[in-house]
Amino acid sequence: MSMVIGDALSLLLFRLHSGRLLGINLLKVNEIIPCPALTKLPSRHPNVRGIATLRGAAMTVIDLARAIGERGAPLTRTTVV
């Protein structure tokens, strides 16, 4: 039998293109959507894939694999943000 004392942490688990398993605090996730069209910025940080417009607001899309030192994967129809 196990007991949870205090606050429990719920994680959204996902795999990078490389197969590496990662988790994000579920309370920090608003929604998961197919990757929208991205506008590339001319002098962006290498981890930034671009800017998307979501319900009229600009959203920066970051390549999480690159951010943790892995090789980034191409965007496909199954890519989500």
Describe the model:
With 81 residues, the protein is mostly beta strands. The chain has one domain (11-67). 5% of the residues lie in helices and 28% in strands. The chain has one helix and four strands; from the N terminus they run ββββα. It has one helix at 64-67; strands at 11-15, 21-25, 48-54, 57-62. The protein has a two-stranded antiparallel sheet. Strands 3-4 form a two-stranded antiparallel ribbon. The mean pLDDT is 89. It comes from Ectopseudomonas composti. Residues 8-81 form the CheW-like domain. This is Two-component system, chemotaxis family, response regulator CheV. Pfam families: CheW (PF01584).
Please, what is the average pLDDT? Answer: 89
Strand order of the biggest β-sheet:
1-2
Distance between the termini: 37 Å
SSE series: EEEEH
Strand content: 25-35%
In one word, what is the shape?
A: globular
